[in-house]
């Protein structure tokens, strides 16, 4: 990958960071892309996160059992750690040791198709964790690492390594690498139009007139290709 490629990637992560997940969700809908991570929520409503995916897939533990993974020191700073535990809510795959190290190493956040524990530390450090829920029971001897660096499923959305993930109060969206320029462009257009509608309404224009003028009802309508 060239320096120019890395610069483009950094720019696009920065663009995503400035947009909220609702706007990005509307852009995904307009383009017919499924990128909303269903039921994946922040452990704190103040959490914000944007970065590129580093992925790991779990499966049921075998005999002898595999491990839940000692991968944290190999994840690049600024990445979002994406853990697919098949949506399981009976055991966790993330706790306080991982939170402390990830925070110290500058990881952007963690997204789990499943649950975490030791929530108090992510809250006190301000380290963003997005998951289905939290509960204390360990995943040790219940799950094991199947693979890293592969496509995974997070809340019915496909996440591949290097995709952009954005998280905020409303949840998490994934922006596929191959569509990121288009998704970000459409999202920025939607945000600009909505800002114009707000400004017009504040100046005294009727909301229905403002919506018509700035084509509100077309903003999320699926594009015809």
Question: What does this molecule look like?
Answer:
- The chain has 225 residues and is an alpha/beta fold.
- It has 2 domains: 1-33 and 177-225, no CATH class; 35-175, Glucose Oxidase, domain 1, CATH 3.50.30.40.
- The protein is built from 6 helices and 12 strands.
- The protein has helices at 3-17, 21-30, 96-105, 119-125, 180-202, 207-213; strands spanning 41-42, 49-60, 79-84, 109-113, 115-116, 129-131, 133-134, 143-148, 152-154, 157-159, 164-168, 171-175.
- The strands form 3 sheets. Strands 1, 2, 3, 4, 6, 8, 11 and 12 form an 8-stranded mixed β-sheet that branches.
- Helix 3 (96-105) runs parallel beside helix 4 and helix 5 packs antiparallel against helix 6.
- The radius of gyration is 19 Å and the shape is elongated.
- Mean pLDDT is 92; it is low at 1-7.
């Amino acid at each position: 990958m060239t320096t120019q490629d890395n610069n483009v990637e950094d720019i696009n992560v920065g663009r995503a960071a400035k947009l909220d997940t609702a706007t990005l969700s509307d852009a995904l809908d307009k383009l017919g892309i499924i990128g909303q991570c269903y039921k994946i929520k922040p452990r704190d409503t103040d959490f914000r996160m944007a970065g590129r995916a580093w992925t790991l897939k779990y499966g049921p533990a075998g005999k002898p059992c595999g491990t839940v993974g000692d991968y944290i020191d190999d994840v690049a700073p600024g990445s979002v750690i994406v853990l697919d535990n098949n949506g399981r809510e009976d055991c966790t795959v993330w706790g306080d040791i991982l939170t402390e190290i990830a925070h110290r190493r500058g990881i952007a956040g963690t997204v789990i198709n499943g649950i975490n524990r030791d929530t108090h530390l992510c809250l006190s450090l301000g380290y963003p964790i997005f998951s289905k829920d939290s509960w204390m029971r360990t995943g040790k001897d219940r799950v094991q690492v199947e693979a890293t660096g592969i496509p995974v499923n997070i809340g019915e959305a496909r996440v591949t390594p290097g995709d952009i993930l954005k998280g905020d109060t409303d949840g998490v969206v994934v922006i596929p690498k191959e569509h990121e320029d288009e998704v970000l462009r459409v999202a920025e257009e939607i945000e600009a139009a909505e800002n114009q509608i707000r400004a017009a309404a504040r100046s005294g224009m009727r909301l229905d007139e403002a919506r018509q003028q700035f084509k509100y009802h077309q903003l999320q309508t699926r594009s015809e290709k």
